[in-house]
Design a protein that fits this description.
Length: 400
């Protein structure tokens, strides 16, 4: 019942459960990041906070592997960074080429339409990457202003393998390239400058293991030139990069009150990336996720993506015959305080999505998830080989 003006709400102390987060995000947060969030607030224009802003931008450049001046955390979740990228690059009357091979390509299309753009598609089945000749044909046919692709498709567990080829053919047709790197930044190889990506956006809660709220975005000079030369202002005032440039650029002029605590958290999460070394971090994700992959295959399950475009940070595992994926996910949560997820869109009910990201990408976690998944599947009558998954996981970890 709603309270009246004379009643005081009776709300208990905040005590959420302690979960092991091995789903598609968020991942578990490093204790150092949580401590950073308890740091006292300062004003969003305080000189000390300006120094923190500078640190975050430099650390983001390191993690994106870019020298782009226009590299910032957008105030909001990864979807805010996504909408900032598309809503600023796509003007009314522009054409954007988007993929059909996953849930987040569909989201790109939705945002481009809301920005006033015309959407055309490059076709690829769900669970497969884009092929260069197919993209080139679509570019020749539609002559888009912007081409978007998903580097690490969270809905299918597919890593796009031929990014430099895609950006090259897009630029031959004078299209700017936007890359969704939400599930790849800080977890799998990503080289924005070397691969000639014009715009990349990400979410902090995936491989960076940072609470959502300040989301990475980087733009090349060519992309920012398009933003600053628009004939019409973007439809979102809040995400207008020509205005945000005044706050994150040299002026540090007021635009909005930044999520100060989230920026503290992102700075510490990125410091952890730099301390580990970005290439070592990529290697860790591949090694630990490889042990997870060995474990699920050892118990008799199949991966959704073939080896050549397997995504270490998000492992799509086929659901065994006769098993309800939602029942498995619910049982893991209730019995083990362990979170994984089922499929989205065309793969709903067909796959488990098991993350191996950031602070969650540790040996003890993959042993735990393989053990728990084996137990729950066996208890629900799945055709699995009890114990073989854990043995395969341990052997994989021991060989590294």
């Amino acid at each position: 019942m709603p309270t009246t003006d004379n009643e005081t709400p009776d709300v208990s102390e905040l005590t959420p459960p302690s979960r092991t987060l091995m789903g598609p995000g968020p991942s578990n947060t490093n204790p150092r990041v949580l401590r950073a969030m308890s740091t006292p607030l300062v004003g969003h224009l305080d000189p000390s906070f300006v120094e923190i802003m500078n640190d975050v931008q430099e650390l983001l450049r390191y993690t994106f592997r870019t020298d782009n001046e226009w590299t910032i955390p957008v105030s909001g979740t990864g979807s805010a960074a996504m909408e900032a990228a598309i809503g600023n690059l796509v003007e009314p009357g522009d054409t954007m080429l988007v993929p059909t091979n996953g849930y987040f390509g569909d989201r790109m299309a939705s945002m481009a339409r809301r920005a006033g753009g015309t959407v055309v598609e490059v076709d690829a089945p769900w669970g497969e990457p884009l092929e260069t000749p197919t993209v080139e044909d679509a570019l020749e046919t539609h002559d888009p202003d912007v081409f978007g692709f998903v580097h690490a498709e969270t809905s299918t567990g597919v890593l796009q393998p031929n990014v430099p080829e895609l950006t090259a053919v897009a630029h031959e047709h004078d299209a700017l390239v936007i890359a969704d790197t939400v599930t790849s930044l800080g977890g799998v190889e990503l080289r924005v400058d070397e691969w000639d990506i014009d715009v990349a956006y990400a979410g902090p809660q995936k491989c960076l293991s940072c609470p959502p709220g300040a989301s990475p975005l980087t733009l090349s000079d060519e992309a920012m030139e398009k933003v600053l030369s628009r004939e019409q202002a973007p439809r979102s005032w809040y995400l207008d990069l020509s205005l945000l440039e005044g706050y994150w650029g040299d002026e540090r002029a007021y635009h909005h009150t930044a999520p100060i605590t989230n920026v503290y958290a992102l700075r510490e999460a990125l410091r952890l990336v730099a301390e580990e070394g970005i290439e070592s971090r990529w290697d860790r994700h591949e090694r630990i996720a490889g042990a997870l992959k060995a474990g699920v295959e050892g118990m008799g399950l199949e991966m959704n993506a073939p080896e050549e475009y397997w995504l270490p940070s998000l492992n799509a595992v086929q659901v065994p015959d006769g098993i309800d994926d939602s029942e498995v996910c619910e049982t893991l949560l209730e019995r083990y305080d362990l979170e994984i997820a089922g499929g989205l869109g065309d793969l709903s009910g067909e796959i488990f999505r098991i993350g191996c990201m950031g602070h969650s990408a540790r040996a003890e976690n993959v042993i735990f998830v393989v053990t728990a998944l084996d137990d729950v599947l066996e208890s629900l009558g799945a055709d699995v080989d009890p114990g073989k998954g854990v043995t395969a996981t341990r052997r994989s970890l021991a060989t590294e």
